[in-house]
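Q: My collaborator sent me two sequences in one message, no labels, and asked for predicted structures for both. Can we handle them in order? The first one she listed is below.
A: Yes, handling them in the order given. First sequence, followed by its structure tokens:
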Amino acid sequence: MIYTLIFSLIAIFLIAFSVMSVREKNLTHSVIYLFLFLIILAAEFLFIGASFIAAVEVLVYIGAVVTILAFTVMITGGKEIE
């Protein structure tokens, strides 16, 4: 019972951060929400016992993709989308 509750709570956070990442007009905030989404997704994988997938998620997506996106946003200025 408690595992289902924790899994559901993590899933609610996943949905919230994914929606906020897409709906945010400020690009810097959008990258931060994407980062938080990927961290919580890795935690979800750890919770269900898929530690290898969680490690790959952290190394590849957070370590490479989000870093490149963050540098791109910072170089271009990260202005709001109109």
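Q: And the one she listed second?
A: Here it is, processed independently of the first:
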Amino acid sequence: MISAIVLINAEVDRIPEVAQAIAELDGVSEVYSVAGDADLIAMIRVKEHEQLNDVIADRLNKVQGVIGTNTHIAFRTYSKHDLEAAFSLGLDGD
């Protein structure tokens, strides 16, 4: 699984509509409305690297109200859920 984090700038008066439209795209797992340099953050999860172009460049960037994006591709994902699953499988070194 390939994960990408996309910081999105949107037209201020359209942020909720832009967030909803992005959340409905295949490959988008979550969209967050945030404070800071970006208006929204979208989590993208795809099986193949080439699909990132389909989701981000071909669909997300074309959502009406999106002004610009900044994409970060994850090398590795760490989460509490992943760590708990590893320990339950006996991968804690015991």
